[in-house]
Every structure is written in C-alpha cells, then in structure tokens.
Amino acid sequence: MMQENPTGGSVHQWASAYSPLSPSSKVQAIKALNTLKPTKIKLFPSLPKVIFMVDREVKVPSSLDSAYSLGIHVVVTELAKAKQYTPLMLFTVANMFHLHKEGYLLKKTKSSINVTIHHLLDLSQFEAEETTDALTWQEAWQCKISWLAEVAEPVIHEHWSWHFSTLLKDEAIHNNFKAILSFDIRMHSCYAAQPFQHDECDWQVHLQVVIYDVVKEELWNSPLVRTITPLHAMSPMMHQPHTSHCFSEFKEETTVKGKRTYTKML
Known about the structure:
By secondary structure, this protein is mainly α. Helix content is about 50%, strand content about 10%. It is built from 11 helices and 4 strands.
C-alpha cells in the first residue's frame, strides 16, 4: 500500500474544510492562509574579502619628537668617534629614552685622547653590562645593529650582525647566558681598544674557551665543591682511610725559635 504524501493530505483536508464555508468565512480563511506564507528573506550584499586597503593609509609625519622616536643619542656617537667603548646598555630602549629626556643633566667627563679634549658621557651612571638579562641583551643588540648600519662600513656591519645572530642561535643562550654575555663583552671591549678583523674559526675557539671558563668558575663556586677540602691542603696522614669518615685535627708544636718539633693529633 502506497503511503500518502503528507503535503498532499494536508491540501485535501484544507479543501474539504474550505468548501462548506460561507462566503464571508472563506474570505477570513484566505486571509489566515496568507499570514502563514513564509516571509521573503532580505538578501544582504556579500562582504568584501579585502578589508585592509592601501588607499586608506595615510602618510606618517616625519617630524616626530626625537624624545619618542628613540634614535641613538648623539652622546653615544661621540663615544664611538673618540674610539671609546660603547657598552651595550646604552642601546636599551629604557636607557635611550633616558638619554633623550635627561641627557643634558647627565654627568660628563673631560678626557684627553690623542691630544684632543673630549667631554664624554660618564658611563658609571648606567648599570653594568654584566647585570643584563637575555631579553634586554637581545633588545639592545637589535638597536645597535640598526645603528651600525648607519655608522659602519657594510663589511663591519655584516660581521657584527653575524656575531649577534650566531650567539643567538647558540645553545648556551638558554642554559648558560652568563658565558654568552661574558664573551660578547670581551669581544666588544677588545674591538674598541684595537679594531680587528673577524675570523670565524678564531671566534669559535674564543667562545668555547669563555664557556669553559665560566662553567669551571661556577662549578668551583658551588656549595658542594666548597665543602670538599682540597687534597693539597691536607696532611699526608689524612690521606689514610678513616672508618668514621671524619678527619682528625692536628696541632703543630714548635720551639721558641719557631722550629717545628712534632705534630700532635687531638
């Protein structure tokens, strides 16, 4: 048996109910039927796929206040021109802002360099490079690389860019930043004292030496190592096995003239 179409059945039922109605009732039924018709959906135009367009951009004025543009301050350039060391701390955003806002209040020192008198920035007013953290170090380096692109020859800028990017990729930057920072400061101070040509092989050797020295220093300064008495400080008798694992205390007896006579165990 074929199942009746639900839609067709509804229409048939509506026609059967409509036929016996009076004319006025039929008019009311038609009005009620019209109210049940689905309303037309308003079609909205599709949104554009491109939202950010070039024609909406405006040109930024070039005459910005130098205190907020955070360019490299002239006192840093003066240090470089006088062939003096320019520590990385001068290139942090915080210190550059400090220089631009209060540079005229900062102390300067009078220095005679190659028979020329210079009034240079007193670096003791800034924090030591050794105290910087990894994020501040990277921030300062980005600023210094941009500065070197303006004041250094392309080859020199390329070498220091390689220096920074290579240190940034080194595993020690994560687990031994102290060694990276120590090596970086050493390279910069040496270059300021006497500019030298960069050699990648020599650079790698010096880096490994500094990492080794820093690790060795940290190892010997650790609390565990400090509790161990060096062998050269022990008496030969102390080298003998001791069942209690405690070293005896020895007292040296001397004569009036200071000549040793014997050693007594306490």
